[in-house]
Amino acid sequence: MFHDVGRPPSAFNEWDQTLEEHIFKDIINYLKNCKNKGEGISLSKLAGILNHSPEKIEQVVRKYNGTWIDGVLNYVETPRGFYVVWGRVGEDPILCLHEYLDEVYEVTVKEGASLAICNKCGSRYILPGGKVEVDWSLNGISAPETINEIWGEPFKVSGRVLDFASKNGMPNVEVKVMLSRPPYWFWNCVGEGLTDYFGYFSIDLTEHFRRLQPGKYALSIDASFNGVEFVKVNDDWIHLNLTERPATPYQTRLSKSMIVDVSVRNTEGAPIKDCHVTLGSIKGLTDEYGNIQFRYVPPGCYELQADAPGYIPKCLKVELNEPYQHFNIVLERFDPLKHVVTPVLQVAGVVAFVTCPLWIPYVVSRILDNMEHGDN
């Protein structure tokens, strides 16, 4: 630690900031010029090369963690020390340090990719400036789409950010939901969040939507990493046409489209998994609990059918006129003796009964003939 008794406290901060910037530039210059670009290096070794204290270098690396300056600067703490890790994009491969094996593996970077994955350990490296694909929806309605009268609550934007080259989900990507009004020149951020390890995100917009006035709007998604935006190959919008707000929260878009829950059980009450359920033209499979949900179904009369292997299919006539409705379906197991042999025997009995007047007189006449010939 450096000391200067004659400096006032405010000057210490300015001097420390200048020293941090100097140390950071030294680290970047070393990363640029070292022979094994992208390879991990221990904190103590880096301190010896740059002639700075390990504590100060660790402080600087933590402060600038992930900053994009000719490479991705990061740090990792292992049982054997603190390592600086980086990657050079476009010029050099990313080298992934496997601390426990004392090995370094090269990670292949595809042209135009925004994500690189180590085949040995699964580590994921974000590459700012690459191409991404964003698949997203508002309350289950996927972009691009135009939605009318969507005053329902809650509002949630969810989706996934994918690397365009490999179609793998991208972790730790900053996602922003942008809102604009015609002529769509200015966009405001109304919600933001981070993707998880597999690239999924979910952002709640309920509070912001409560403040919106009637009119036309558009929603879009921006994706970036450490302030550097990705190139979106599908810049899909959702257009909103908002009318006057309803008097009660239940007079929502769901009053013109229903949520239908269906539970399928057998006669013993056990749930039936992977049962094919059809509601009109909508199809789906039940989960492990025997349940399935259909969203945004228009009101009207439908045929609700359930069909599972080993069970007798069942079809119901249902009328949807409420925002939320639930139906229970009980399926009976298919018994060959009961549902095949018994009907066949019944049909045979009916045939015998119907044809009885034809064959009984014939049999009786044959018996009488035999008796007469026997007497002679």
Structure, described:
Strands 10, 12, 13, 15, 16 and 18 form a six-stranded mixed sheet that branches. Strands 8, 9, 11, 14 and 17 form a five-stranded mixed sheet that branches. The protein is of the alpha+beta class and 376 residues long. The chain folds into four domains: 9-107, Arc Repressor Mutant, subunit A (Orthogonal Bundle); 131-242, Immunoglobulin-like (Sandwich); 257-331, Immunoglobulin-like (Sandwich); 336-375, no CATH class. It has helices at 9-33, 43-50, 54-63, 206-210, 336-354, 356-375, and strands at 41-42, 72-78, 81-87, 94-98, 103-107, 115-117, 124-126, 131-138, 141-142, 145-148, 156-163, 174-180, 188-194, 200-204, 215-225, 228-229, 231-232, 238-242, 258-266, 276-279, 282-285, 291-297, 300-307, 314-320, 324-331. Helices cover 23% and strands 37% of the residues. The protein starts with 8 loop residues before the first helix and ends with a helix. The radius of gyration is 36 Å and the shape is elongated.
Per-chain topology:
Layout: H1 9-33, E1 41-42, H2 43-50, H3 54-63, E2 72-78, E3 81-87, E4 94-98, E5 103-107, E6 115-117, E7 124-126, E8 131-138, E9 141-142, E10 145-148, E11 156-163, E12 174-180, E13 188-194, E14 200-204, H4 206-210, E15 215-225, E16 228-229, E17 231-232, E18 238-242, E19 258-266, E20 276-279, E21 282-285, E22 291-297, E23 300-307, E24 314-320, E25 324-331, H5 336-354, H6 356-375
Parallel strand pairs: 8-17, 10-18, 19-25
Antiparallel strand pairs: 1-3, 2-3, 4-5, 6-7, 8-9, 8-11, 11-14, 12-13, 12-15, 15-16, 15-18, 19-22, 20-21, 20-23, 23-24
Helix pairs in contact: 1-3
